[in-house]
Q: What sequence folds into this?
């Protein structure tokens, strides 16, 4: 099992309001991957002063970035703080895992949240990262209080992880997920292992093949997808929505005006945090 190596507060160059949360940058050793992996954690205001336990959200980044991208590009700390202040979000721990590649622009070998030959990322995530978070942070470590979301590459993984592990996640939300048509991804065209992993974990195919027993388990998860009307992957996301409806699995679907990029994901994050909070509060 992985071991926590480092845990330090992130340095902010912007003025913070008194009731703001904090961000930690962390490093852990992974026995599964045989390397040290970084991740970040958002802690809501009041975490350090209390002994309270909190629900936890795993927020997955798109390809071409790292665990810090949701902080620098995605404005996560500010959005989470503002949404908590508005009363539309429960205070929660938000974990930002890293699935960046080893090449330039964080692409190339080892890119992605799915396992590829010689790199069992999914075993690392579920057998090492989640247990490490639950043992080092005051999480409420059960299905109802654990959720997952992500954008693009992270969007597909947020669906697939919940499909494969319905006992772990109470909610799964995808923004602009690479669903159904991975050949449209430029990264997939240049990396066969990455492309194969996207195809092997196609959420629509999983639903279409699901047995009645699996469908019953999928119904125990709160599902939410959001994809822009001018996104590369809007057709695949619609196909996933229809596959879910055909199986009788409830799902919230959003299609706003927009393309595949950070403006769409930044503006869509607060509604997802609200949706997840409703599940945590039930």
A:
């Amino acid at each position: 099992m992985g071991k926590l190596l480092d845990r330090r507060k992130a340095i902010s160059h912007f003025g913070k309001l008194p009731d703001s949360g904090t961000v930690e940058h962390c490093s852990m050793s992974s026995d599964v991957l045989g390397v040290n992996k970084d991740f970040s954690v958002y802690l809501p205001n009041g975490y350090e002063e209390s002994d309270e336990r909190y629900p936890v959200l795993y927020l997955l980044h798109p390809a071409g970035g790292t665990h810090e991208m949701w902080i620098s590009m995605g404005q996560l700390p500010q959005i989470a703080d503002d949404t908590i202040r508005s009363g539309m979000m429960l205070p929660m721990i938000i974990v930002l895992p890293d699935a960046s590649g080893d090449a330039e622009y964080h692409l190339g070998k080892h890119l992605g949240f799915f396992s590829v030959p010689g790199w069992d990322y999914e075993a690392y995530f579920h057998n090492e990262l989640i247990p490490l978070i639950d043992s080092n942070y005051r999480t409420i470590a059960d299905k109802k209080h654990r959720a997952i979301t992500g954008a693009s590459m992270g969007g597909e993984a947020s669906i697939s992880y919940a499909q494969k592990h319905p006992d772990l996640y109470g909610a799964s939300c995808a923004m602009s997920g690479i669903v159904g048509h991975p050949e449209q991804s430029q990264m997939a065209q240049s990396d066969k292992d990455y492309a194969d992993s996207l195809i092997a974990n196609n959420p629509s195919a999983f639903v279409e093949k699901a047995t009645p027993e699996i469908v019953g388990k999928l119904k125990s998860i709160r599902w939410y997808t959001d994809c822009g009307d001018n996104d590369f992957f809007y057709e695949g996301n619609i196909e996933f929505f229809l596959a879910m409806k055909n199986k009788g699995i409830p799902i919230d679907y959003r299609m706003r005006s927009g393309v595949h990029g950070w403006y769409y994901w930044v503006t869509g994050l607060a509604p997802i945090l609200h949706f997840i909070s409703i599940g945590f509060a039930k």
User: Anything to note?
Assistant: The beta strands are 3-9, 22-30, 35-43, 56-60, 93-96, 146-151, 171-175, 222-226, 252-254. The longest helix spans residues 262-281.
